[in-house]
Amino acid sequence: MASSRLDSSQPEGERRKSLIVFVHGLGGGIRTWGKFKTLIDADPELRNQFDVVFYRYPTSLIRLPFMKPSLSLELVVDALDTRIALETEGRDYAAIFFVCHSMGGLLGRDYAIKAHRGEAGRRISAMLLYATPNQGSEVARLPNFLSFGHHQLKQLFRESDLIRRINDDWRDLGLDDVVLVNFVVAAQDSVVTEASARGFWGSNGHVY
Predict the structure, then answer these.
(1) How many CB atoms lie within 10 A of CB 85?
(2) How confident is the model at residue 84 (pLDDT cuts 50, 70, 90)?
(3) Any idea what DSSP says for residue 207?
(4) Closest Cα partner for 139 from 39, 62, 199?
(5) 206: closest CA among 137, 138, 96, 126?
(6) Which of 2, 31, 65, 121 is the most buried (most CB within 10 A)?
(7) Is 0.90 surpassed by the pTM of this model?
(8) Ordered DSSP codes for 59-112
């Protein structure tokens, strides 16, 4: 994301900050991001150019019959929209960037779709997707007794309605030309295959 940095020759008082939104994946949380926040805060240039938000939502890798049903990803995206609206209220951000891990990338992409249609708040300028199951995930094959009523897990199936809708909408809206997307792939990942993490519909983003 180095290319998104603002011109350092611009007077400090005239610079507009950008916002970075971190979105964790299935079963994740704030610890997903390790020392990201500490490293950003320790860098004066980054600290002066970016505000940082860590979006958290209820999720777990497994769900047993006596546990509460998991929220659908559509509801989680609605909550994400509310959080971004609160964070951007009264602030004139130059751009919004998403950094997403695993399932969080699907949430970010769905938010981008809604924002492009005017159904959500601010549009996203760029996304960095870490091992996002853009074509579905093998984790959805967990035994039924570990995933009873697990809406999020079911939506990660390779042929799920959610995966199809996000990929179809992204293509139909031409978001490859609007949102810069880079992919980080773990070649030995048994949960999200390299092919699934590499992209969607021939996306022109860079793969790392």
Answers:
(1) 12
(2) very high
(3) B
(4) 62
(5) 126
(6) 121
(7) no
(8) --S-B-TTSPPPPPHHHHHHHHHHHHHHHHTT---S-EEEEEETHHHHHHHHHH
CB-based contact 105:192 (threshold 8 Å): no
Angstrom distance (rounded) from CA 107 to CA 128: 13
Phi, psi of 118 (to 5 degrees): 85, 15
Q: Is pLDDT at 166 greater than 80 in this prediction?
A: yes
> How far is Cα of residue 169 from the mean position of the Cα atoms in its chain?
16
What DSSP element (H or E) covers 20? strand 18-23
Which of 73, 61, 67 is CA-nearest to residue 143?
61
Report d(CA 40, CA 156) in Å as an integer. 31
Which residue's entry shows tokens 């996306």? 203
Q: Which backbone phi and psi does 191 adopt, to 5 degrees?
A: -90, -50
Per-residue DSSP letter, 193:
-
Cβ–Cβ < 8 Å for 134, 74: no
Q: Which two tokens stand for residue 164?
A: 């199809």
